């Protein structure tokens, strides 16, 4: 087996820089959720972008805007204490476009009278990214569960605010 010729140093540096910028987008994405900083969260998303949250919503992929999606995230998580951890970053940069897989453990907590006060999702994001004038943004957001533990009713899909936010994205 012969060794392949490494790319030009400028190409390697640009690739490493782009991968770091995309990683930072994912970290701001999670930080925005954890702090309930919906502007920080929305700023990680392209306008418009595609979202696939079938595992959570049971609804097919849709196209939406960052502000509408941030309202949905707030309706899902605003009343919870949350912590998102990401690992196993795998990023493929192709010029001004990129794809990435990011494993996640998403913890949700809310003391309540109806069951376990915690709900944890284990899975990954399969995202696409686009370079914009404001840096890298998520252009496709796909959230996949492998399994979940705890009380899924902490994300209250019967709440009218959740229903309205979901309808604004996925339709009735």
UniProtKB/TrEMBL annotation:
InterPro entries: NTF2-like_dom_sf (IPR032710), SnoaL-like (IPR037401). Residues 15-142 form the SnoaL-like domain. It comes from the Bacteria. This is Nuclear transport factor 2 family protein.
């Amino acid at each position: 087996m012969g060794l392949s010729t490494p790319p030009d140093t400028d190409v390697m540096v640009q690739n490493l820089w782009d991968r770091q910028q995309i990683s930072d987008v994912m970290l701001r994405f999670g930080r925005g959720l954890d702090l309930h900083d919906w502007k920080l969260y929305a700023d990680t998303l392209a306008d418009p972008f595609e979202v696939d949250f079938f595992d959570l919503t049971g609804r097919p992929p849709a196209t939406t805007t960052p502000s509408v999606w941030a309202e949905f995230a707030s309706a899902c998580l605003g009343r919870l204490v949350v912590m998102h951890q990401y690992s196993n970053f795998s990023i493929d940069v192709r010029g001004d476009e990129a794809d990435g897989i990011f494993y996640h453990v998403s913890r949700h907590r809310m003391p309540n009278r109806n069951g376990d006060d915690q709900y944890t999702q284990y899975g990954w994001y399969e995202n696409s990214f686009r370079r914009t004038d404001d840096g890298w943004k998520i252009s496709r957001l796909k959230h996949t569960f492998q399994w979940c533990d705890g009380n899924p009713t902490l994300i209250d899909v019967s709440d009218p605010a959740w229903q309205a936010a979901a309808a604004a994205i996925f339709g009735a």
